């Protein structure tokens, strides 16, 4: 299965946080799953780190390199992804999450999240 990790799932995974659920750990460890991270997440981390957010204290360049070295596939942002945001219902206001969702829908990838609001979209969203 193709899995796009939401930003917090991504951060919790690489930091081995106890906040990462056993279900998420199992999905990430399963060799049959193809793991994706988005440029959206790197952008979000960089912005929130610059704002001083404690939960986003990571070197973005190092994170990207480590993800690529560990077999993750990077998902770039395309114009189609941006256009797809326009068609989403207004269930969630976070622009980063809305773009991640649009990417998941556009690319037929399951978005893995711990965000209950984001999970309300259903379909290509898996709450863990």
Q: Can you describe what's shown?
A:
With 128 residues, the protein is an alpha/beta fold. It has one domain: Rossmann fold. It contains 7 helices and 5 strands. A 5-stranded parallel β-sheet has the order 3-2-1-4-5, with helices on both faces. α5 packs across α6. The chain is globular, with a radius of gyration of 14 Å. The mean pLDDT is 94.
Average pLDDT rating = 94
Q: How does the major sheet shape up?
A: 5 strands, parallel
Q: What is the overall number of helices? A: 7
* Assembly annotation: single chain
What sequence of helices (H) and strands (E) makes up the elements? EHHEHHEHHEHE
Class based on secondary structure composition and strand pairing: alpha/beta
Q: Low-confidence spans: pLDDT under 50, at least 5 residues?
A: none
Query: Helical amount among residues, as a percent range?
Result: 40-55%
CATH superfamily: 5'-nuclease
User: Any guess at the CATH architecture?
Assistant: 3-Layer(aba) Sandwich
* DSSP E strands, number: 5
Tell me, what is the CATH class?
Answer: Alpha Beta
Characterize the overall form: globular
Give me the Rg, rounded.
14 Å
Sheet-strand content, in percent, reads 5-15%
State the end-to-end distance.
15 Å
Spatial order of strands in the largest sheet: 3-2-1-4-5
- Total domain modules: 1
């Amino acid at each position: 299965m193709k899995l796009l990790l939401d930003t917090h799932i991504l951060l919790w995974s690489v930091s081995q946080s106890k906040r990462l659920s056993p279900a998420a750990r199992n999905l990430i460890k399963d060799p049959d799953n193809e793991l994706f991270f988005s440029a959206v997440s790197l952008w979000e981390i960089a912005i929130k780190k610059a704002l001083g957010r404690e939960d986003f204290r990571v070197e973005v360049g190092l994170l990207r390199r480590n993800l690529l070295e560990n077999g993750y596939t990077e998902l770039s942002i395309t114009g189609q992804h941006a256009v797809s945001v326009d068609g989403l219902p207004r269930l969630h206001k976070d622009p980063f999450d809305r773009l991640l969702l649009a990417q998941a829908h556009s690319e037929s990838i399951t978005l893995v999240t711990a965000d209950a609001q984001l999970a309300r979209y259903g379909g290509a969203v898996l709450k863990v």
